[in-house]
Amino acid sequence: MLEGEQNLIKKAKEGDQASFGQLYDHYIAPLYRFVLMKVNDKAEAEDLTHEVFLSSWQNLKGYKFQGFPFSSWLYQIARNKVIDFYRTRKAYVSFENLDEDLLKVVGVSETNLEVTLAVETVKKALTKLTPEQQDVIAMKFIEDLSNDEIARNLGKSEGAVRLLQHRAISNLKEILASWKTE
Amino acid sequence: MEDRIIKILQSLKLIKPDEGFVSRSRNTVLNSPQNTRWVPNLNFLETLKFSAALTLASALLFVFLGGLAYFNVKNASPMLLSGVNDNDLKVEEANVDFQIQLGEVTYHLDSEKELGAQIEELIKNY
């Protein structure tokens, strides 16, 4: 959670662009990764992430603090955008479409094709999980949120989060194992 | 295998959005107008929740007790007034002089008129 977040939100609600700019800078990367893990397409992830922030800025006056972090509101908007995306565009995941940015950040060279494929395969397998399992995996391992933070973001108990995480990892193992045998 | 999956997942945290995209998106977002339409302040509904729950609970309790009283569930009904003494009622009942011997009242089910006449007669005598 960003320091002085409630104050920034208050000012942003009054139309202060600089305050919302700080919120934007803080949350853009995690939200982008969160969306990217769900759609597995860089251009779509950028469009959807932009829509999330645009929507949150435009509707900020309707935001009301109810004991949950501001990020939970953003993640909720992001989830809705992703649902709309799949509902309207019937997107598909292309295994051939390797994400160049991803390869760069994990330090994968063309010579290390095995690692490249492993990363891309896990990324593709993530899209086969249920939306809730994807949320937990993205928040836990990619965003490093604690179980308590994930629980508050998703409106679930910590026990439910642990269970979802366990099932998600098991499912990932099964999916990857089944692909290996194909 | 699980460790390897987790390691790969953790490596994904290094992904960052393109700087050009961030810059463009940030400017577009911040330069767009906020919705200025009036958002109703529904805070008062929060306080109404408790009163509404209380009212509903009271109404249900009233209906429940009414049901008990209707079916004459004497022992279970807390509607019975504690001030009413059973013994006093029995004494009062014994002292009442009805002047009517119920045994004399005969119901002639085949003739409503006759029954009506008898009841009228009884009222007059009473």
UniProtKB/TrEMBL annotation, chain B:
<keyword id="KW-0472">Membrane</keyword>
<feature type="transmembrane region" description="Helical">
    <location>
        <begin position="50"/>
        <end position="71"/>
    </location>
</feature>
<keyword id="KW-1133">Transmembrane helix</keyword>
<keyword id="KW-0812">Transmembrane</keyword>
<protein>
    <submittedName>
        <fullName>Uncharacterized protein</fullName>
    </submittedName>
</protein>
